[in-house]
Amino acid sequence: MDLTRAKNSFVDPRALQDRLRNFRLSPQGFWRSLLSLLLAACISRYLRSLARSFWWHRSMASMLFGSTVVNLRRLLGQRQRYRIEIHQHREKKEEYAVWWPEPPRAPSASRLWILVPGGMSDADSIAGYIDEFLQSNVIAPSEDWCVFHNAGTGTARWQHGTFTGLSDPTFLLDFLQGLNAMDSQNSCRYREIITVGFSVGGMLALATASKVVKPMSGKDKSLVHVNRSLSGSPCRLRFVSVHSPDCVRTTFEAMTKWAFCARLDIPLTLHFWAVNLRSGLLFKCPGGPWFPWPPTWSYMRRFTEAAWAQNEALKLEAEGNAVSVEELKKPFEHFDDSFALRLRKVLPAGPGSRSNHS
Predict the structure, then answer these.
(1) SS3 string of the chain?
(2) Picking from 16-20, 166-170, 194-198, 353-357, which range would have the lowest pLDDT averaged per residue?
(3) Is the separation of the CB atoms in 176 and 193 below 8 Å?
(4) How far apart are CA 184 and CA 238, in angstroms?
């Protein structure tokens, strides 16, 4: 039986030669096979890049997981509700928004938490860090909190200008002044105000802290009404930065060198476009690219340059000097400090703050 089985399994060389001689590959089959190989190679390379990127950027994978959980919770009807207040800066006459939770917190709260989201987002950001922070029970039930949005975000619309730096504390200072948090003459409702900035919002928080600790001079118009030292007001101010860059431009330039699946500048560019569409900024900057293509840092850079030039042109026009926007265009590096954290001194460390949880 073994000899019979071996004989049946033996391949006749002549039969094999006949098969190879009669084998014909059509042009259509050839290109189909070649495309299949190329597609398999591309998928393999992408999966390899994906695995390597998530290994080297594990925090990114954690963020994506957290965002997925947050947005699933929203789809299930567990979304945080807000009451939106639109404020207007006393001098600039531009709008900024403050979102208060619904239902309202305890009216007798002695501590207020001001949460500042990133520059390209608002409290409904897909990143989910505001929701994650609220779910962590850091804020006690007896404490008050709100979400601060700089000019042109959080449903606030541009009125006269088209530009403000992501690290420009002008509007946050105006909000603090409205709470009498920086006035030793009038009483503040809260004994302590803690500003927590996430991502680029952390730059804004620390830039505000820098001006509160050491005002530059009387020429600084954002501090005309600030009449306070660190101990001049019964309201204690604290500032916290969470996972913040020190320069937006260099951070996004670094993102462009990451693997494709780790290109965070792509979703951030799309969100940047959506925020500008909602605030009306896209229509106030005719010289800027309207559609986000390519949806990368290059689009954000070009649009920001156009918004800055448009803002300068509006200033000159208000003074009676009409100038073409194209003549005023400058590279992003020209106003880099408006998107970077430049502390004038080391901020003093304060005692730790702890919430009492039930």
Answers:
(1) CHHHHHHHHCCCHHHHHHHHHHCCCCHHHHHHHHHHHHHHHHHHHHHHHHHHHHHHCHHHHHHHHHHHHHHHHHHCCCCCEEEEEEEECCCCCCEEEEEEEECCCCCCCCEEEEEECCCCCCCCCCCCHHHHHHHCCCCCCCCEEEEEECCCCCCCCCCCCCCCCCCCCHHHHHHHHHCCCCECCCCCCCCEEEEEEECHHHHHHHHHHHHHHCCCCCCCHHHCCCECCCCCCCCEEEEEEECCCCEHHHHHHHHCCCCHHHCCHHHHHHHHHHHHHHHCHHHHCCCCCCCCCCCCHHHHHHHHHHHHHHHHHHHHHHCCCCCCHHHHCCCHHHHHHHHECCCCCCCCCCCCCCCCCC
(2) 353-357
(3) yes
(4) 17
**Distances 288 to 67, 94, 107, 348 between C-alpha atoms, Å:** 31, 21, 45, 41
- For residues 247 and 343, the answer to whether their CB atoms sit within 8 Å is no
With 50 as the cut, is the pLDDT of residue 38 above it?
yes
**Neighbouring C-beta atoms of residue 197, cutoff 10 Å:** 28
Could you state, in order of their start, the residue ranges of all structural domains in the chain?
Answer: 32-79, 80-242, 248-339
Superfamily of domain 80-242: Alpha/Beta hydrolase fold, catalytic domain (3.40.50.1820)
Q: Model confidence over 150-173: pLDDT tens digits? A: 888 888 888 888 788 777 889 999
* Cα 270 to the center of its chain, rounded Å: 11
Helix axes 265-279, 248-255, angle to 10 degrees: 130
